[in-house]
What we know:
Layout: H1 4-11, H2 15-22, H3 31-43, H4 50-57, E1 62-68, H5 81-96, E2 100-106, H6 109-119, E3 123-126, H7 132-141, E4 146-149, E5 159-163, H8 165-178, E6 184-188, H9 195-210, E7 220-222, H10 226-238, E8 246-249, H11 252-264, E9 274-279, H12 283-286, E10 292-295, H13 298-314, E11 321-325, E12 328-330
Parallel strand pairs: 1-2, 1-3, 3-4, 4-5, 5-11, 6-7, 6-8, 8-9, 9-10
Antiparallel strand pairs: 10-12
Helix pairs in contact: 1-2, 1-3, 5-13, 8-9, 10-11
Amino acid sequence: MSTIKDIAAEAGVSVMTVSNVINNNHSRVSPGTEKRVREIMAKHNYVPSMVARSLISKSSRIIAVLLPIWYASSASMLRDPYAGQLVGHIEELLREKEYYVMVCSFEQVSQVLKIQQTWHIDGMIQIMPHEDAVTRELIQQSRTPLVICDRHFDDLQMLSVCLDDHKGGYLATKYLLEQGHRDIGFAAPAVFESAVIHARYMGYLDALHEYALKENSDWVFNGTIHQEGGEEVARRICSMQKRPTAMLATEDLIACGIIKGCQECGLSIPQDLSVIGFDDSMPSRLITPALTTVAQDVHAKAKTAVDMLMHAISDPDFRNQHTVLDVSLVTRQSVRPL
């Protein structure tokens, strides 16, 4: 296997010249010399050591994608369709820019700081919200550029990209109200522990208030997690004497769980219960009936986060920008008019 010294000897140049070619330092190498060195590298199938390149260029070309672990069953957020889709788009966009992605699940900020130091990473994107205290600490202590998805703090300088989550909760609830529903429930992970979920919940309440309605606390399911949680919500709904006519879930997996659980209990969707989800992820198209849902452009979110991070890597003074992306309602077959 050829080394950088072998390439330099065959080309009749110094090791530093070969290094400049590898690291695209065009101003330090003549076009003819660069062409000759690259031809010899190709002949020997020479692949530069990433470790050596990072030491010379002070850049590892590695971006860490951070996945919070914030409850016991979230050992890997990649099991979530939205998270998996977002990571996929980020990896594709970074690969086009010749960066490598390191996926890192973490509970505490100290784990992230260790990753930064060990791997000399160039930047980070946190793709889902962690507990506020952890996210705040990470923003304040991070030694590399950092973009946070789906969380923003007005009192901190930070780079973030979020959805208009309040609008999403409002749009979904308003659509149900326009279809004649007045008994509308809400299913979500811990509502007041997540700013994202809380914003969707407030949109739900604001739409109800426009129709002079109040929430029924019996129909607000707080702490629901993924499909299994949705199925448990369905079983509780089925056991009620007075049931809601419609449910808004803050993620598609919860909504799909509600549909599946209700069908197993003998209820028909949407005849007995209308259901709306959030995210427009793949399960929303695969469930029967197909799920009406609040859609977000996951690719646009990934591109915004990557572009923001690239700007921050090239400009040390760029450390404060907040982008809010729009949402829309996709109507399918899981809601019926009353």
